[in-house]
Design a protein that fits this description.
mainly beta; Porin; 14 strands; 14-stranded antiparallel β-barrel
């Protein structure tokens, strides 16, 4: 029969491995996926009205269970407009993300570069290709690690060696992604449609923290459609759908938004909105939105509907998004080069 020490060591390794698999399966994802555009497709870089866009996202998921997730992301993009190319537009961007889960603070930190090229196919039709090149590091802290070998017979003694071997504190890897996006834009009616797809982790990097082990990160395939229609002078209707597929895991989200424009005066724009999404088999996602001039804020709270709600008490967790867009004042001839952005 195995002794207690061996059983606890085995349980420890299973706990660590389970945490690794959980974070690996999670990947970076937000309920407000339309407000974290580069994380569903690098080809959405530069697809906005303005010159420079800052996006910040924060998610605190499953705080009521021991292995809750915290995720923070930030990105900044800048358009590069060539006045000699009336049908072309480049965009470049920088990305940062941090993900953390579990008592052993298993975390992943990533930085990356995004670039895109947009070509105008016709007056209201645009095609964009985007690329993401990144570096990431996974880390594990043993500060909260407790095993039998660290008990001196009376109490826990952190100065004693744990005796656990074969597990690295960190590992690094490169990450590459690609995507395409089609945009239909009516600049006079606030109507726009985006349809696209992307492939993340093209190189399937090894992310294992165990020495000599392989834990290749499965490619993630994204398909989506996002739209906004001007249905009245003050009212917009938004509809969207997202499918993400990674190894044996998948996520499908359907939803819509109603946005009411309180003020449409130049540089004094104010709008409020409500949204409701459903992640199939998992959660309802009610969202509040507020726009003021170049600022936009979104807040949602996931309500679990899956069997997991027995552990979460339906508390999926809050998520916050912040977007700021800086726009230059352009001469008329230069403005005509990019009529929708």
């Amino acid at each position: 029969m195995l002794n207690t020490l061996h059983l606890k060591r085995g349980a420890l390794l299973l706990m660590i491995l389970g945490s690794c698999i959980a974070l690996y399966a999670q990947d970076i994802h937000y309920s407000q996926f339309n407000r974290s555009p580069i994380y569903i497709n690098p080809a959405l870089s530069g697809i906005y009205k303005g010159d420079i866009r800052f996006v910040g996202n924060y998610r605190n998921q499953w705080k009521t269970v021991p292995v809750g997730y915290q995720t923070f992301s930030a990105s900044i993009e800048k358009k590069i407009i060539n006045t000699n190319q009336k049908n072309s537009l480049f965009s470049v961007g920088l990305l940062f993300n941090y993900d953390e889960a579990g008592d052993l603070t298993l975390s992943q930190t990533g930085i990356g570069f995004a670039g895109s090229y947009t070509h105008r196919l016709a007056e209201k039709h645009f095609l964009t290709g985007g690329l993401h090149l990144g570096l990431a590091q996974r880390r594990l802290s043993d500060a909260n690690l407790r095993v039998d070998a660290q008990y001196n017979g009376d109490a826990f003694d952190p100065s004693l060696a744990s005796g656990e071997t074969g597990l690295n504190a960190s590992t690094g890897f490169g990450d590459f992604s690609f995507g395409l996006n089609y945009r239909f834009q009516n600049p006079f009616k606030r109507t726009k449609i985006d349809i696209g797809g992307s492939i993340f982790h093209l190189n399937k990097p090894n992310t294992s923290l165990f020495e000599g082990a392989e834990l290749d990160l499965d490619r993630r395939f994204n398909l989506y459609a996002m739209s906004s229609f001007k249905v009245a002078e003050e009212l917009d209707l938004g509809l969207r759908a997202l499918g993400q597929f990674q190894g044996p895991h998948q996520e499908i989200v359907l939803g819509g938004t109603l946005k009411y424009h309180l003020n449409q005066r130049r540089s004094r724009e104010v709008a409020v909105g409500i949204a409701l999404q459903y992640r199939l088999g998992d959660a309802w996602i009610p969202t509040l939105l507020f726009d003021y001039h170049n600022w936009s804020v979104g807040f949602n709270y996931d309500i679990n509907s899956s069997p997991w709600n027995r552990a979460t008490a339906r508390k999926g967790g809050p998520e916050l998004s912040l977007i700021y867009i800086f726009s230059k004042v352009r001469p008329p001839k230069e403005f005509e080069i990019c009529p929708i952005f």
